[in-house]
Amino acid sequence: MAGSLQGGRTSRRIGHVTFRAILTLFMVAILNFLLFRVIPGDPADMLLAGARNSVSAEQIESQRKSWGLDRPLIPDQLLNYLSTTFQGDLGYSFKFSGRRVADLILERLPATIALVGVAQVIAILCGVMLGIYAGWRRGGAIDHVVSGTSLALYSTPPFWLGMVLVLVFSTALGWLPGYGSYSPSAATADLPDWLGDRARHLVLPVLAIALGLIGQYVVVARAAMSDVVTEDYMVTARAKGLTSGQMLMRHAFRNALLPVVTLVTLNLGYIVSGAITVESVFAWPGIGSLTVEAVNGRDYPVLQGVFLLLGLSIVVANLVTDLAYGILDPRVR
Amino acid sequence: MKNPCQQAKAPILAVEGLAVDYRLRGSSLPTIRDVSFEIQAGEAVALVGESGSGKTTTAMAIAGLLPPNAAVSGGEVRYRGDRLPIDDDAAMRPHRWSEISVVFQGAMNALNPVHRIIKQIAEPCQLQLGMSRDEAIARARELLELVGISAERGRAYPHELSGGMRQRVMIAMALACSPSIVIGDEPTTALDVITQAQILKLLTALRSQLNLALILITHDLSVVAECCDRVMIMYAGRLVEDGSVADIFANPKHPYTKLLIESIPNPEHGKRMVRPIPGDPPTLQHRPSGCAFRSRCPSAMPVCATEVPNLKRWEQGRVACYLHPPMKHEEKALANA
Ligand SMILES: Nc1ncnc2c1ncn2[C@@H]1O[C@H](COP(=O)(O)OP(=O)(O)O)[C@@H](O)[C@H]1O
Ligand SMILES: [Mg+2]
């Protein structure tokens, strides 16, 4: 009886958060559409500006027409945008004429996922563990070192960290490549060499992103654990005769994880959106660089695609956060 | 049980000269001083005092649960005649919960929000008594029934229970390893009056059923009468009076005890405003010389400022006041000089 009630409540909650996610996504799409229409500057003018002398007003007008820019914003352009978008068609790039936005994004996605994904995995493993340990042994020597370093890393901009890493390990020491995701010479090598080359290119940009994330995770995990160790139920656990290890594993760990899980799963949303500044520093061919290129060229469809991807990943990350939190904390089930 | 002081039996718990200090920003603050008392098996003793008087600190020291910034700076605690290693966490572990258990004040916070209550009750049975998981769960179900909760409710999480239910769960948990002593640190303070009465009744019933010694900590003297044999009054970290419930209520000796009893709301006097004791208790940082109560005491004498009065045996109980025993005439003249 109690079990089925509980089960019913849980599935209702899951339905509720899923519905909310879909609604949010819809709003993101509309906002995304409107945002790009209010930015000043006409893409047709922009694109043909260099050739202004040889291009007639009629030609610009015909270009505008072919992009659908002559029709009214609402409802024509909006409805057109929504219906094509939800069919998976993100339109064609203004700049790389004839190239589908979806293809451009898919082309850049693997590099970004490799970069930010690896950085996240490393940061989660190191940052959360270090933070939990520092909070558990707060006030100790390890805590002082770990939290001091983390605060410094957390407050350092990743692109600056990236530039320092390049200067030291690439320019000065020459140990690791400082830009790009592979060496042209290794592009046709056999698998082990090819993998090694890719991995070597990953090291510095991954570090630039991961170090800041580690700092952030340590700070949050440590704070969460510091709160948990002063909770009354930890005194209860101690009174019950648990060893310090049992107190940590059975009572403190899961409670300390709650705020951390929120942050981590929300951050996972950024895996696909890339790291704009770090990708720029390392000339990393990912979504971040694509975004910068699209901004510079007023490439509305590409920017829209990238923003939609960002919105989608944040919404999905939120959904995952809600569901994961429900598993960890019975109070929100 | 009427007069435990005269029992020949060895006490189950003996506290002798207990002193506790808190370290705060580099300075060491004397918080508990010279606390001595004995408790017999099955006896129910109340520890009463204003908030901040050191009741919780005393209880935590006895249970070996002081926070890291507290230190036992003197005295000892003996359980069945053997010294308890109250300042050594690892050595204390085998004694925990199976000899002394604690029902904490806020049961909402004292239970872990992410675990089912049955698991939290079963946990010490597994870890302290070495039961298997199934045995421990079976024991936990029995304990839930014992405190008046159906075993099925064991699957609930703490937040799904009312305050009274949670406190029952705490009590079930405290009984898990069949301790001989249960310390209740204001177990009913957060509850409404009716639930409070139910919980106290439950504690009293379980105490006689299981022959538990109970140390009931409270700032509310009125709850003591029905469920305790003896009362100890604490003021500013020291015991100032100790006596049977009947004696304390009929014939309080320490001026502080007298004022405490006068400040109990009396339903017979209708809605008359309760008169709180004027003045404030001394802070940890500023403990006066002599008797800590003298600044609020209607009977303070010059001698009270000289030295702390000892807790001395007097009539049926103990009291720490220069009024008891009454001084002879020439002594009084000397004291007031
Ligand atoms: N962890 C602590 N650190 C420093 N001082 C404390 C701590 N806990 C209690 N105290 C101080 O010790 C005194 C006694 O507190 P406590 O034992 O909690 O009293 P009670 O339980 O009677 O209200 C108070 O003055 C309180 O401020
Ligand atoms: Mg207290």
Task: Write up this protein.
The complex is a heterodimer of chains A (333) and B (337). The longest helix of chain A has 39 residues, at 191-229. Chain A is mainly α and 333 residues long. Chain A contains 14 helices and no strands. Chain A has a domain at 103-328: MetI-like fold (Orthogonal Bundle), CATH 1.10.3720.10. Chain A has helices at residues 2-38, 43-48, 57-66, 73-86, 101-136, 141-154, 158-172, 191-229, 232-239, 244-268, 270-273, 276-281, 287-296, 300-328. With 337 residues, chain B is an alpha/beta fold. Chain B has a single domain (4-336), classed as Rossmann fold (3-Layer(aba) Sandwich), CATH 3.40.50.300. Chain B contains 11 helices and 12 strands. In chain B, the strands form 2 sheets. In chain B, strands 6-7-8-3-9-10-12-11 form an 8-stranded mixed β-sheet. Mean pLDDT of chain B is 90; it is low at 1-7. The interface between A and B is medium-sized, with 24 and 31 residues. The structure holds adenosine-5'-diphosphate (ADP) and magnesium ion (MG). Adenosine-5'-diphosphate is lined by residues 22, 24, 31, 49, 51-57, 67, 69, 284 of chain B.
